[in-house]
Amino acid sequence: MKTILAAYSGVLKVYSLLSHLVPSLSPGTGSSILSALQDRPAAFWPCRSKMEKHLQAISVLQWVITFLAMGAVCSVLLVYMFCTDCWLIAAIYTAWLIFDWNTPKRGGRRSSWVRGWTVWTYFRDYFPIRLIKTHNLLPSRNYIFGYHPHGIFCFGAFCNFGTEATGFSKKFPGIKPSLATLAGNFRLPVLRDYLMSGGICPVNKNSIDYLLSRNGTGNAVIIVVGGAAESLQCAPGMNTVTLKNRKGFVKLALRKGSDLVPVYSFGENDAYKQVIFEEGSYWRTIQRKLQKFLGFAPCLFHGCGLFFSDSWGIVPYSKPITTIVGEPITVPKIENPSEETVDMYHEMYIKSLLCLFDKYKTRFGLKESDILQIQ
After folding, report:
1. Which of 46, 180, 250, 273 is the most exposed place for a label (fewest CB within 10 A)?
2. What pLDDT score does 296 carry?
3. Residue 17 pLDDT greater than 50, yes or no
4. What are the DSSP calls for 145-173, one per residue?
5. How many Å apart are CA 145 and CA 209, to the nearest integer?
6. What's the farthest any 2 CA atoms get from each other in the chain?
7. Is residue 344 part of a domain?
8. What is the DSSP string of 239-284?
């Protein structure tokens, strides 16, 4: 009898302790305990936010490593497999690669499943990245989005248009985005398939012509207009875009009758700190030559470490990136537009981009006196 009383007394003490920790606890089933614990604030679980932050950083890091190394590593691995007992697998994939070679030029092979991966929500929340719609886009038209600025890795462009993490399809129903990137990436095994699954296409004439001419309507091709040259100018606090002599995308829009849409990402340049060399210096000359040879500009930059934010590493800084999709500029279809016509629409595009920047700059950390420099 004494044993039973002692046990019952112990149960009452435990219950009293739980009642102190969880005030909403009331007599009843065990489910009330679980419900009360789940309703506690996030601070009640001290490791949760830290674990989520690490998952977010890892999701961003995997994309950085993918962009920097996946193509080269898979190319070497494919060659190596030919020298092993796995040569048959390598041969089959190579045959498939040859057969599938022109797919990137014909709209690619996007996958809604890949675009909806949970990893992209962690990617989005690391910075965080937001997509803001200012005007409706008609599915009966095709569009060319001019994305600015380039940054180091175009995090905003990839997250907003290469995934569904920020809800592009819900915000722009009937519009199918295709982010254009270096055509050389689609010559590399495995990487090409990974990029195509996100709706990413080569930034070349054949690919863009197909999307805007032979793929119906409701297509939006996103071109990072400044390209590699612009990446050499990106650093925290800099608002500079390379656009003054970039008229090819305007001429293309006129030839295809596709509307132009200015897009600006506030915070894109804040993801990394870069050493910017002066024009005419020895190191800037080397960067320019490598840019022409490789197709991209090798930048000297750094972010933070994976586990320690005050250390150096290739993980970007968690700075907010907000992408504003501006008002479309209606463009007529002209097979052979004159230089005067191209210049006129190019000037209209620049004015629209400047207005977009000026309208939203103070809402996202910039001062009223800050201006967007066009180079």
Report:
1. 46
2. 67
3. no
4. EEEE--TTT-HHHHHHHSSSTT-HHHHST
5. 15
6. 102
7. yes
8. -EE--TT--HHHHHHHHHTPEEEEEEEETGGGS-EE-PPPTTSHHH
Q: Is residue 5 part of a domain?
A: no
Name the more confident of 49 and 360: 360
Q: Distance between CA 290 and CA 284 in Å, rounded?
A: 10
Q: Of the candidates 290, 224, 216, which has an alpha carbon nearest to the alpha carbon of residue 258?
A: 216
Residue 14 has pLDDT above 50, yes or no: no
Are 370 and 361 a contacting pair, CB within 8 Å?
yes
- The bridge status of strand 321-325 relative to strand 129-133 is parallel
**121, part of any domain:** yes
Total residues belonging to the chain: 375
Q: How many domains does the chain have?
A: 1
CB atoms within 10 A of CB 210: 19
C-alpha to C-alpha distance for 136 and 173, rounded to whole angstroms: 9
End-to-end CA separation in angstroms for the chain: 90
pTM, rounded to two decimals: 0.83
| Sign of the dihedral defined by the CA atoms of residues 104, 107, 112, 117, in that order | positive
Is the separation of the CB atoms in 261 and 356 below 8 Å?
no
- Hey, what are 74's tokens? 């898979």
Residue 83 has a CB neighbour count (10 Å cut-off) of: 9
CA proximity to 238, closest of 148, 119, 110: 148
Question: Residue 62 sits in which domain range?
Answer: 49-362
* Whole-angstrom distance, CA of residue 160 vs CA of residue 321: 10
